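#onboarding

Welcome to the new folks! Below is a worked example of what a typical request in this channel looks like: someone posts a single protein sequence, and someone else replies with the predicted structure as tokens. Don't worry about understanding the tokens yet, we'll cover that in week two.

Example request:
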Amino acid sequence: MDAVDLKAHAEPYMKVRAHDFFSLENIMPTYVCWTKAGRLSPGQRERIAKAITEIHHEEAWAPRYFVQVIFSEIGAQSHFVGGIEATRDQIWVRADIRSGRTEDQKGKILTRIASEISEIAEATRESVWVYVSDIPSHGVLEFGHILPPLGEEDSWFAKLPIELQERLRPLA
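Example response:
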């Protein structure tokens, strides 16, 4: 068997430009909403994304441009609770957010998201499960910069390139 030059083979896949990787699709906090396939309409998804963004902005005191919401559909026989296939109404939200929020803040985020989603999706509140997981700010890199500790967002923002600041400012 001939020797393979792994570096030459992998090089085309490694040429990712920083501005492509650090686009608005790759930001944090990240909220992922899992539902059965077809459970939510496009309009419901948009309303949920806006609600989660506002809740996080209001309760976690973070700029809106840090919030991303991803929807993922689960096929038949792919989600089980207690060994039994989950009902069609089951909606699961997993959030990874910067650590440092108080229990009160996280409690408000959890309960408000559950209430908003249950109303928008016309589901019982018991069928909406929300998990919030903390990640230290030094463990997250966005827009090419390690995130600041809570409360230092303005100085972090001021150090960003002007072009990026102009792109993010309307989303704040």
